[in-house]
Here is the input.
Amino acid sequence: MYSEWRSLHLVIQNDQGHTSVLHSYPDNVGREVANAVVRPLGQALNTPSAAGSESLLKTDKEVKWTMEVVCYGLTLPLEGDTVKYCVDVYTDWIMALVLPKDSIPLPVVKEPNLYVQSILKHLQNLFVPRQDPGSSQIRLCLQVLKAVQKLARESTTMARETWEVLLLFLLQINDTLLAAPTVQGGIAESLAEKLIGVLFEVWLLACTRCFPTPPYWKTAKEMVANWRHHPAVVEQWSKVICALTSRLLRFTYGPSFPSFKIPDEDASLIPPEMDSECIAQTWFRFLHMLSNPVDLSNPAIISSTPKFQEQFLNVSGMTQELNQYPCLKHLPQIFFRAMRGISCLVDAFLGISRPRSDSAPPTPVNRLSMPQNTAINTTPPHNRRHRAVTVNKATMKTSTVNTAHASKVQHQTSSSTSPLSSPNQTSSEPRPLPAPRRPKVNSILNLFGSWLFDAAFVHCKLHNGINRDSSMTAIATQASMEFRRKGSQMSTDTMNSNPTFDASEFPDNYEAGRAEACGTLCRIFCSKKTGEDILPAYLSRFYMLLIQGLQIADFICYPVLASIILNSPPLFCCDLKGIDVVVPYFISALETILPDRELSKFKTYVNPTELRRSSIHILLSLLPLPHHFGTIKSEVVLEGKFSNDDSSSYDKPVTFLSLKLRLVNILIGALQTETDPNNTQMILGAMLNIVQDSALLEAIDCQMEMNGGESNLLKNHRRTNSGISTASGGSTEPTTPDSERPAQALLRDYDTAAGLLIRSIHLVTQRLNSQWRQDMSISLAALELLSGLAKVKVAVDSADRKRAISSVCSYIVYQCSRPAPLHSRDLHSMIVAAFQCLCVWLTEHPDMMDEKGCLKEVLEIVELGISGSKSKTSEQEVKYKGDKELNPASMRVKDAAEATLTCIMQLLGAFPSPSGPASPCSLVNETTLIKYSRLPAINKHSFRYFVLDNSVILAMLEQPLGNEQNDSFPSVTILIRGASGRLAWAQQLCLLPRGAKANQKMFIPEPRPTPKNDVGLKYSVKHRPFPEEVDKIPFVKADLSIPDLHEIVNEELEERHEKLRNGMAQQITYETSIDQQSEEEWLKKSFPDPVTECKPPSPAQEFQTARLFLSHFGFLSLEALKETATSRLPPHLIALDPTLPGFFDDLGYLDLLPCRPFDTVFIFYMKAGQKTSQEILKNVESSAHVQPHFLEFLLSLGWAVAVGKHAGWTGHVSTSWSINSCSDEEGPEQDEVISSEDTGASIFSGQKKVLYYADALTEIAFVVPCPVESLTDSLESNVSEQESDSNMDLLPGILKQPSLTLELFPNHTDNLNSSQRLSPTSRPKKLPQGRTIPPMGPETKVSVVWVERYDDIENFPLSDLISETSTGVETTSNSSTSLRSTTPEKEVPVVFIHPLNTGLFRIKVQGATGKFNMVIPLVDGMVVSRRALGFLVRQTVINICRRKRLESDSYNPPHVRRKQKIADIVHKYRNKQLEPEFYTSLFQEAGLKNCNP
Here is the structure.
């Protein structure tokens, strides 16, 4: 920069301005003259009475003569007061430029600039080291320096010549004292800090008022290079350059750029009036004033200055050993301090130097100093003193070197001496993101790259005889590294060329500075913006640095390794070109760090917890690579340079797939040794990621094998779909040294997803019931991991599944059995979470309940939760449930246990129902029954309402529905509203087997057979009164005693006789005719005779089925109707009065209470550079505006459902749980209009459609908000059925919900004419008047943001977009618990997804922390594959919302809220009838009082 300018060295050397006339005389003459002349002047100044009197000197000649004497007096020994008087006189006189006083001679007042220039030259004599320096010389020097400081600050009339003389004076006195090797306890050591401080402060004042010319800058640069062995030089340079940088950034990048906070005392060094141009010029010159800071690592360069060379020869002429100079022993610390200063500047430019929690600013001053153990034990006193002066008082809490925030860090012992912890980061704070407007990586490296790269390779050794220069310079030349400055030599060359320097004397001391440089470079490269290009020269050298620094063989350097790991967490998430070449080296480093429980080698340098956390972050970004890149081989860099062993793994290219075993092994090793809760949770999240990714990959492979020969298109798709080429990882033999290492205990089982899943279950369950059960945050994460593992679709043995269920049961038993003082809300939250985990396992694996042992164990745990104890505590003692007093751990635990019991009894094996997963309840209520039944006479008053046990409301419709049911049998339709939902049962009294029932309509008795009259022969026989034998009996006399009739007849008798005969004949005729007539009538009659026939009674046609049902089921008894005297609960069976006003409103309110927790996710798409909410919302209006992977991601979250026809949660209360609508035909012209539009993802805005996911335990609506104007357009037309179907086809395996009907055979409705078919109407967006929304409890809205450019995350307008995320829940009566009113913006959970160039996705989670800590499986900094993204996002959302519900005081589970509402309905609408009235009402027809609806 100053090559064309002359230095002022010769001017300074040849200047005789500091000599006096008296120097020509013998010493005693000058001493006596000086003593005599100076005393009256000095006494006049020091006598209070004479303080205001005029000076003795009046003329120009007198003053000049006196000055010759004073000039000589300043060279005298320090005994006596002469030198002090000289100093007093001169410090008084130079104030003529500030404020003239009477004590100053008149000539000096008139020509102050001229005299002050001479005085300054004379004062140089005072700073010449004396033979026996004492405190008096130090005191006098400080007096002069303070006067000079005041002169520069306050003088307004100083001429340029005077400024130049002043600067040369300060350079000269600094050079006089500081250039020579430091003598312990000498004057230079004591004054160094003040000397440099005054020089730099005056220099900055000169820059403002009279900018120094280039020769002065060049001279200063050359001289400062001679003083660098003083720690104060680097310390003060660092303070000044940081203060300048703070001002520079303010006007260079504007107020929006994160300000670089520095202490006020440092900021005051920069004159406020210095303008922007001046600051920029000064900043660049000051930056280079220290020359190359890397020289500090090379004692040979530092000791090659003239003053050092002068002292190389001692009195006897023998050369002294260079390393005997104590001052050179401090070079490692000075080198580290310089690197820390540069590191601080880099952080300032990156915008990551935020203030720490205790407001101590992160300047070099209070950044960490060298650790005690790496510094030399014989630290001279001035070092300790200088630390106490320069470090802010607030940061020095103890006598040791401490971090600014040590008092706030939990691991104080380890972090307090850590020199390598990444700047501005406590162990609890998240790492700050670089500022969005930061400069490019190339720009920062152009400024600092040369120094940092040189420093990063200081004292590095490469093997096989390759020294640093040949390898590094070769690479530098090959890569055309233009930024290497001319003359910047590698330190090793110079050291080797210096015969007096033995490099082995300084082996490890420079590691701290080298580590700081490596860490800084890692931070620079990690700050790369999305899409930014970095010069290949920089990248190649950086990768060389990483490969060198990550060595774990003979050349391991623990500080450097720790620094690289600490500062590289996002390294693999930045899309750096070729970064994969260093993957094997990072894996080897992680194998050294993570499975090591103690990290004893690193403890002295770094906080082990932070080191492990950074290592885990790196591991999270490496885990997806083996599956993603498959059998691609990694490149080999510097083959054979690091080892003499030919079989070293670094020499051979390895496939990424072969690294999987090592990565999984590190993961499992890390989990076994980790003790920090945050780190453990990150590992648990990674575990679910790798298991799920393996399972999905195997599923794809199986599918492909079944399909046989696939087309190239499919192959290409699979390649981009994060697939690999081989069927599974199991066939690839690992080519890593780990396969020969028994200590690593690698298991081949990890190759398969099932083996990985089983190992994960074993590890987590074992630790859940040992180390982790006391820690809430780890317990919750472990239970979430187990819940996630339950959903992984991999076939594992039932014994392993039972192990998971048993461990959760054991965990609940342990937590419930803890002593009463330990029972807190947090403990109960852990038990509730465990019950939820149990439910997930049971619903995902319902066949586990087929095992008797498992069922018994689960039901025992449920009983423990509900009652507080188990019935069977030992083999002998059994306490029956009816005899136990309910004493649960808490009501929340009891509620969770009841929910588990409901899950076992009602959901296992019954979900999803035929009506689809949208609702676990029946999609039928009173309105639907009335609408779809064929009986026009029924209305809502046709239902009878009863309540069983104060917990179940029965709505009974006694009339048959008029469909294909057998109407002649007693039938009742019952709507059962209980704590778990609404269920509809259509019941018929079955009296005959099903076969008979199908053949006949009603009961008909068996008929008699018809008579057969034509059977056999008919004989006409005349019957006699007496038998024939009577005629054969002979008469006796007695027989003849009675005469015959004709013997006695006479005429009179004859007449009578005749009359009688005639009468008899008539009678016979008559009787014969009667017989004939009766026979004819008999023949005419039907058979059998209806009058006399015995018939069975005809079947009943009308039934009071409600009474029959209650009676048959045992609900109807005198005991059930009686009030219990001891309890306040109503009787077991009561009737409700539906005629009371508000009854049906409250019933509708109960139906709106969901029976599963529901969550809402709002998905946004943020294009590069966008900042406003409207821009972001417009992106989703067309699929052309978004990346295709975004649409694929949406469809992986859930399936599309049509709002208004959907029976589940839709993201807004007004359209959710809609059960009274079904699909109907729509006009074809509408279909055409809609299908021609490209609505993109905005179709899922919640107006027409929404993405939906549900399982047995939860439901989620995924809403993609779009601008308001596009919503109004979409309201005018519904979505076509065809489009709905086409979207549904994208989601195989999802049940399509059939149209709702009450027909047993739905196709029979075709026979109905169109007037009979009811056309449903969708519910409008606004709520119907009079209908209230039930309070839904605390609501958690999660935002998922797809960002094209990672740096835009800081600009995401979260507060503006929260207003777009209305779900209607905020307006409910308990809005005090809604998200809007209670959740600060920083706690709103947001998951950012950033697609990387590799096809993987980088995750950032924001706001999902708080009391319950981080939520898994997605954690900050994780990288996930395209396959697993949808599953992991969904699982994270479910877990975030579960955690928020656990945290909330006001949340009640759905079944509890329903139970409370049922009790409320019972209280309000109970029909308070006497028992006789109740029985009477059962025999009356329902709705008699109110026939009109």
In short: The longest helix spans residues 1051-1084. DSSP finds 57 helices and 13 strands in the chain. The two ends are 98 Å apart (CA to CA). Residues 1159 and 1260 are 5 Å apart (CA to CA).
